[in-house]
Amino acid sequence: MIERLTPATFPGAVPDLAGLLVDAVAGGASVGFLAGFDRPAATAWWQARAAAVADGSLAVWVHRAPHGITGTISLADAGKPNARHRAEVVKLAVHRAERGRGLGRELLAVAEQHAAASGITLLLLDTETDSPADHLYRSAGWQRYGIVPDYAAGPGGELKPCSFYYKTLGAGR
Questions:
Q1: Could you say which of 30, 139, 146, 166 is the most buried, measured as most Cβ atoms within 10 Å of its Cβ?
Q2: What phi and psi values does residue 161 have, to the nearest 5 degrees?
Q3: What is the pLDDT of residues 134-159, one digit of tens each?
Q4: What is the pTM of this model?
Q5: In the prediction, which pLDDT does 173 show?
Q6: Strands of 86-94's sheet in order across
Q7: What structural domains does the chain harbor?
């Protein structure tokens, strides 16, 4: 079941979100953290997002299974008066044990549907080039608009290229 976390439910989800983020980094996902990223650091990172969840500038969805949260995706508002029509997809993660079953695609569709229903007409994201996420976004109709070499370090510290994507929704041109 995929659900949007509210300001009231977000704090209770933080421990599972932290575990999911640690799993993603341990599995080689380039989501902004380096090897050795642990639960306390992941917990602190998620807790720092509580204010944004509370004020609505960050929407977080989770997939709950009987054994806990197995996937997440977030949408971050652009936060500028001239950018109310756009948002950024951030932190799409699926637990390694759950990958290959369509959950990433399902989470992405939920975020896209919410954005469109909210009047957002442009979504942006970035991901490691040639990663499984890169292939997911291309197959889901996202348009790559560039690749920057050596953009970010992967969990092992090696510099990797990053692909930048956009997707227009609804009335977007």
A1: 30
A2: -75, 155
A3: 999 999 999 999 999 999 998 999 99
A4: 0.94
A5: 45
A6: 2-4, 58-65, 68-77, 86-94, 122-128, 159-168, 143-153
A7: 2-121 (3.40.630.30)
Phi then psi dihedrals of residue 75, to 5 deg: -120, 125
Chain segment 39-88, per-residue pLDDT in tens: 999 999 999 999 999 999 999 999 999 999 999 999 999 989 999 999 99
The CA-to-CA distance between both ends of the chain, in Å, stands at 33
8 Å CB contact between 108 and 89:
yes
Distance separating alpha carbons of residues 132 and 150, to the nearest angstrom: 18
Given the DSSP bridges, would you call strands 143-153 and 122-128 parallel, antiparallel or unpaired?
unpaired
From the centroid of its chain, how far is CA 155?
17
Residue 128 contacts residue 161 (beta carbons within 8 Å): yes
